[in-house]
Amino acid sequence: MIQYAVRRLLLAVPTLFGVTLLVFSMVRMLPGDPAQAMAGVHATQEYIEQVRRTLGLDQPLHVQYGRFMIGLFRGDLGTSIRTGLPVSREVWSRMVPTLELTLVSLFLATFFGVAVGVISSTKPYSVFDYTSMFGALVGLSAPVFWLGLMLMLLFSVRLGWLPAAGRSGPINLILPSVTLAASSVALVARFTRSTMLEVMRQDYVNTARAKGLRQRAVVLRHALRNALIPIVTIIGLRFGALLSGAVLTETVFAWPGVGRLMVDSISARDYPVVQGAVLLLALAFVVINLVVDLLYGVVNPRIQYD
């Protein structure tokens, strides 16, 4: 397993290199001048050129990319144009709130999605099944920003039960985590239902029933355990999707995470921060996929890593 993990990490190096090249190119296609944004609206042209030389933006693109890669190999992601602070410090300080929001949303998606999917599979074509699958369809169709605004309007403005924005305590996590988890709950529920229905038709499940085992034991010990591999796969993929989807949620609820940092940095043309944030999210995707692959061996010991 260790050899497999090391090999996967080595194979991820070209992927991360491609991400750096793509992000470096795309952020420089954004309209606007970061030197002008940093110097101010009323700055003279001489001062703007001085700022541009200080930031190294007067160099050719291949020179700027080379400097960026050299700093990356040294563990230096550069300095924020907007604040003058190291990019690594800015991104890591915002990564904790993002991980907090993502992990809570992932827990909600896993718990409610698997529970609803399992119950629906044991009662196919029932009222609960039709209702839950219709709710899952609505959850998949509702845009994140619209759902967040509707929840904020209902529970914060109308009822006054929950705070609308900020990160002052655990109660502030409720609305953004529910908003972020809604589509994932729906997707996990539908996927769990379809996988469980397929597993429930297998011969070993019928044999377990013939032995006189209770329905709960048949579902949890035999059917769900053998359906876990595709469920773990979709949950792992949703973790990455939740990290990227946090951009809209953090913006709606003023959550001080990486997503909101990226939005603010794009508006300010802060190239180094955007590059560092995207690279960190790409690295998180790679690590998450590796963890999911390694979990297969825990779920099913018959899986061998070559």
CATH superfamily of the domain at 87-299: MetI-like
Q: Low-confidence parts lasting 5 or more residues at pLDDT below 50?
A: none
Helix content: over 70%
Mean pLDDT: 80
Could you give a short account of the major beta sheet? Answer: none
The CATH topology of the domain at 87-299, please?
MetI-like fold
Text of the CATH class of the domain at 87-299: Mainly Alpha
- What is the helix tally? 13
Q: For the CA atoms, what is the radius of gyration?
A: 24 Å
**How many strands?**
0
Structural class: mainly alpha
Q: Which percent band covers the strand fraction?
A: under 5%
Proper CATH architecture of the domain at 87-299 = Orthogonal Bundle
N→C terminal distance? 8 Å
Sketch the topology as an H/E string, one letter per element.
HHHHHHHHHHHHH
Instruction: Give the overall silhouette.
Output: globular
Describe this structure as you would to a colleague.
The protein is mainly α and 306 residues long. The chain has a domain at 87-299: MetI-like fold, CATH 1.10.3720. Helix content is 76%, strand content 0%. It has 13 helices and no strands. It is globular and about 85 Å long. The protein starts with a helix and ends in a 7-residue tail after the last helix. The mean pLDDT is 80.
Q: What would a concise description of this structure say?
A:
This protein is mainly alpha-helical and 306 residues long.
Write the layout of secondary structure elements.
Layout: H1 2-27, H2 34-39, H3 45-55, H4 61-73, H5 87-122, H6 127-141, H7 144-158, H8 174-200, H9 203-210, H10 215-226, H11 228-252, H12 258-267, H13 271-299
